[in-house]
Specification:
It is an enzyme of class 2 (transferase). This protein is α/β, with parallel strands linked by helices. It has helices spanning 20-35, 111-114, 116-123, 176-185, 205-213, 224-232, 257-281, and strands at residues 42-45, 60-65, 83-88, 95-99, 128-137, 146-155, 190-196, 218-220, 236-246.
């Protein structure tokens, strides 16, 4: 892993000479100053449909605009919040760092920007990260509003956040212990393989059929690159997808981002309570 001790020559993650881990340390320093605490315990990335659920985890103690923190940008997707929050986890004395948005690969800012939030969380001491997303479902019985635990992923971006000869084992990229814990909280949860496409266009019916043949159950435009970066940093990973719509070809209805947002609003209470209970147990 890159030495975090050296200060970055530049805070521009797109600059090849920039040390992305040093930028993460610089971001963590700002968050420490703004929150008044040296470390956080768990991080959460709230994807499409999950935005309201952070309120149920605990009391928000500090809210920070993304643009005030090195390496972060404004929310680029409707339904996402351009802030990060330091949240008290019940009365445990522990803190959660809750990101209201993520940088998607399709935004064109590069893989380093996509995983910057993960690396910043690791620099803050988080040993666990919960990655959520809104996705297309490949099973007709998984109706919009159904949360599904991610058991594994297929990364079709043709990119990796890992630079250089650093061979990270991804056998259990989504930590079995955390998946079992989530099922303890909600015994009705299914598991599935998440397939990340580049986006921002939705998948074609032929691509969805390909994903199914490859062993996929869910399709979307995020998460896998972040999970890889989290494992590189030694973090445990829990991934949960919210099925917001049937994938292309599964339903005759054309895909629409408004449908994604509506499904998220309808499922907000269940998803929020699920995350709150899981985070309390981690």
């Amino acid at each position: 892993m890159t030495d975090n001790a050296a200060a970055p020559r530049s805070l521009d993650l797109a600059d090849p000479a920039t040390d992305p881990f040093a930028v993460a340390e610089a971001a963590a320093a700002v968050i420490r100053e703004r929150t008044g605490v040296a470390t956080h315990d768990v991080a959460l990335v709230l994807g499409s449909g999950w935005g309201q659920t952070g309120d149920l985890i605990g009391e928000t103690l500090v809210e920070i605009d993304n643009t005030d923190v090195p390496g972060f940008g404004k929310a680029a997707v409707a339904g996402h919040s351009g802030t990060m929050r330091s949240v008290a986890i019940g009365d445990t004395g522990r803190r959660a760092l809750v990101y209201g948005t993520r940088t998607h690969f399709y935004e064109g800012r590069g893989v380093r920007a996509v995983v910057h939030g993960v690396r910043t969380a690791a620099a803050l001491g988080c040993r666990t990260i919960v990655l959520t997303n809104g996705c297309g479902g490949l099973h007709e019985e998984w109706l919009p509003g159904t949360p599904v635990i991610i058991s594994d992923h297929i990364n079709l971006t043709a990119h990796s956040p890992i630079e250089g000869a650093n061979f990270v084992d991804l056998t259990d990229v989504y930590t079995p212990r955390l998946r079992a814990l989530a099922r303890e909280v909600d015994g009705d949860l299914n598991e599935g393989v998440y397939v990340q496409f580049r986006g921002p266009h939705y998948e074609t019916p032929a691509e969805v059929r390909m994903a199914r043949v490859m062993g996929g159950d869910l399709v979307g435009m995020s998460t896998s690159l972040e999970a890889i970066a989290a494992r590189q940093s030694g973090m445990e990973v829990l991934g949960i997808s919210l099925v917001t719509n049937p994938a292309a070809g599964i339903s005759k209805t054309p895909l629409d981002h408004a449908e994604v947002l509506e499904a998220g609003r309808d499922a907000a209470d269940r998803c929020g309570r699920l995350l709150a209970a899981v985070v309390a147990k981690i």
